[in-house]
Design brief:
Oligomer: heterodimer
Helix content of chain B: under 10%
Number of strands of chain A: 9
Mean pLDDT of chain A: 90
Low-confidence stretches of chain A: none
Largest sheet of chain B: 7 strands, mixed
Helix content of chain A: under 10%
Low-confidence stretches of chain B: none
Distance between the termini of chain A: 38 Å
Largest sheet of chain A: 5 strands, mixed
Number of strands of chain B: 11
Radius of gyration of chain A: 13 Å
Order of helices and strands of chain A: EEEEEEEEE
């Protein structure tokens, strides 16, 4: 199983950038790195994904280390609505797109 | 734009009862999956399907059955409910296996077994 390691919790002040780290030392060459977030009482919501290069979208940026053994989700300006559990997940292409979730990082945004 | 629809949203069962959780998607996605989420935990994969007529087990398949007769529907059956199956169940879909494309999740079914 492709596993990831994330801190259990992090805090950020509102309107400041947030860097959420993820280690995935067992990543293989064809594994995609996905990030999801889960708001209270809701299903997981897709945030961003990438393979090798850094990625940007309207929600966040994904910085992938050169050796691909770690990645960082960057929220450029945290808002109260960004308070959620963030999951970093590897999508192994050789096992049919199975996602294995860890416990994620619980992000608290301080007003 | 319905996406992934799960029914019911809430359900209470007695130990030993059976029931089916429904999941439907209208995006013509090949891949569908079921997860359970216990309080304070991440999601664990129960069963998944890479296309109509094809299903396979995930991390925690015991006590659950699935079938995939159509692309749109992927029901999850609890054969004989046990208190340990009290959880929130999420269904998800994505375009095709191994594509790296993101999964779309439903809003969940909150199931309590007494």
């Amino acid at each position: 199983d492709a596993k990831t390691t994330q801190p259990n919790s992090m805090e950020s002040n509102e309107e400041e950038p947030v860097h959420l780290p993820c280690n995935h030392s067992t990543i293989s060459g064809t594994d995609y790195i996905h990030w999801y977030r889960q708001l209270p009482s809701q299903g997981p919501e897709y945030v961003i994904h990438g393979l090798t290069s850094n990625v940007n979208n309207r929600m966040a940026s994904l910085a992938i280390a050169e050796d691909r053994k770690s990645s960082t989700l960057i929220l450029h300006r945290a808002t109260l609505r960004d308070a959620a559990v963030y999951y970093c997940i590897l999508s192994p292409s050789n096992t049919g797109n199975q996602f294995y979730f860890g416990t994620g990082t619980s992000l608290t945004v301080i007003p | 734009n319905a996406g992934v629809t799960q029914t019911p949203k809430f359900q209470v069962l007695k130990t030993g009862q059976s029931m089916t959780l429904q999941c439907a998607q209208d995006m013509n996605h090949e891949y569908m999956s079921w997860y359970r989420q216990d309080p304070g935990m991440g999601l664990r994969l129960i069963h998944y399907s890479v296309g109509a007529g094809i299903t396979d087990q995930g991390e925690v398949p015991n006590g659950y059955n699935v079938s995939r007769s159509t692309t749109e529907d992927f029901p999850l059956r609890l054969l004989s409910a046990a208190p340990s199956q009290t959880s929130v169940y999420f269904c998800a879909s994505s375009p095709s296996p191994g594509s790296g494309q993101p999964q779309h999740f439903g809003d969940g079914t909150r199931l309590s077994i007494l």
